[in-house]
Design goal:
Mn/Fe_SOD_C; superoxide dismutase activity; 2 domains; mainly alpha; about 45% helix; SOD_C_sf; about 250 residues; minor pseudopilin epsh fold
Length: about 250
């Protein structure tokens, strides 16, 4: 399956591109997050920013996948295993925002299917525990940022690895749409965005296995391997983070 193979290949490709660009520079020993922050405002380092941001996004995407177990099962038995499903507070939030899990999947897949270029589609949570679907383009990311300027003026995401309140980059140039996100549709989310999962909409993720017309099948397969347990853990962790502030 295409998505299973991406779990092993995509992070390696993104990281190798970054490693080829940073030897001998002050970024050689920096983490990927630090590299994104350090290069986001520097148009002369756009290639490094793109490689680091792709690596960050791809790692988040791939870590959100968990293929169904295959050992000891026939193909038919494996196919009959139901996909993972959200539960608890996460399922309640999805139902509140989108009426049902199938309706949410339809909305998310429609956003991904409607993207004509490469990028990512994210499920995000804001500081008010609302959920929203956010598309980003190219190497755009909601993982590390302080502004996305297009239509709705949304301000940044602070993932757990980045200290709260720390200034985050707006982008390596004035073209914030292509660098740090450029959302076209955000559903009732507030200023701070916390990513729960994302899917890569780059053509190399589905063309090799599903062909030119295979995007819909790729999106359908995604729901079979999305690790809802991990998504729920992230959602609960963000909730606890908010509770600790009270």
């Amino acid at each position: 399956m295409c998505l299973v193979k991406r779990r092993h290949t995509d992070p390696l490709l993104a990281s190798s591109s970054l490693l080829a660009l940073t030897p001998g520079t002050d970024l050689e020993d920096r983490s990927i997050v630090d590299t994104v922050i350090a290069t986001a405002r520097d148009p002369h380092r756009i290639l490094i920013f793109n490689a680091a941001s792709h690596a960050l996004n791809n790692a988040f995407f791939i870590n959100g996948l968990r293929p169904k177990p295959l050992e000891g099962l026939s193909i038919n038995e494996w196919a009959d295993i139901p996909p993972f499903k959200p539960k608890g507070q996460l399922l309640d939030a999805i139902t509140k925002e989108y009426d049902s899990l199938p309706a949410f999947k339809d909305a998310f897949s429609a956003t991904a299917d409607g993207m004509s270029g490469s990028g990512y589609v994210w499920l995000v949570r804001d500081a008010y525990r609302n959920l929203g679907i956010v598309p980003t383009y190219g190497a755009g990311t909601v993982m590390v940022q302080n502004r996305i300027q297009r239509g709705a003026h949304i301000e940044g995401s602070t993932p757990p690895s980045v200290p709260q309140g720390e200034e985050q980059p707006a982008g390596p140039s004035s073209n914030l749409d292509s660098r740090m996100g450029g959302t076209t549709r955000v559903q009732r989310t507030g200023e701070e965005l916390y990513p729960l999962f994302c899917i890569s909409i780059h053509e190399h993720t589905w063309l090799p296995d599903y062909g030119m017309e295979g995007k819909d099948e790729y999106l359908a397969r995604f729901w079979e391997v999305l690790d809802w347990e991990r998504v729920g853990q992230l959602y609960d962790a963000y909730n606890r983070q908010d509770d600790d502030k009270l």
